[in-house]
Task: structure prediction
Amino acid sequence: MASAFLFKALSVLFQYGMLFVLLKVLYRMVRVVASDVREDVQVLQAPVVQAHEAVLTVVEAREDSGLAGRRFAFTDEIAIGRGEDNDIVIPDVFVSHEHARIVARGNQYVIEDLGSRNHTYVNDEELDGSQYLQPGDRIRIGFVSMTFER
Result:
């Protein structure tokens, strides 16, 4: 009878021991999954940054133009001119309808004057055709000056 009692006690201890081990494994699995979910949520909430994105910031403009201080972010191309179909509209008689554009070429940006009558200036030098832009370059079209940043 003593051996039956001992056998029953060992059986109960073994069953509860296995239950404890299974619960501990399950707890660790839930912690790992929760940690992965938290990391995924943080990645999804992180701001999306384009591989190559540029920004034109208007540093000088006539007060009535409404452009002073505005920032224009773009990735592939941005058109500048007096016409309403441009990305940056400059209401100035010295600006052509389609004055200039900046285009991504590989990992760099090129500014092109589109044959404007009053020219485009980069760092106070008249742009002849097209030119690669560097961060900090100052672009002047009419009475508007912008800085190029990456």
